[in-house]
Amino acid sequence: MSDAYVKQDINGLTASIEFFHPAQNSLPSEVLGQLADAITEAGSNNAIKVIILKSGGDRTFCAGASFTELMQISDAETGRQFFSGFANVINAMRQCPQFIVGRVQGKTVGGGVGLAAATDYCLASKFASIKLSELTIGIGPFVVGPVIERKLGISAMSQLAIDADSFYDAQWAMEKGLYAGVYGSVEALDEAVQSFAEKLANFNPEAMMEMKRTFWQGSENWDELLAERAAISGRLVLSEFTREQLLKYK
Question: Is the CB of residue 19 less than 8 Å from the CB of residue 25?
Answer without folding.
Answer: yes
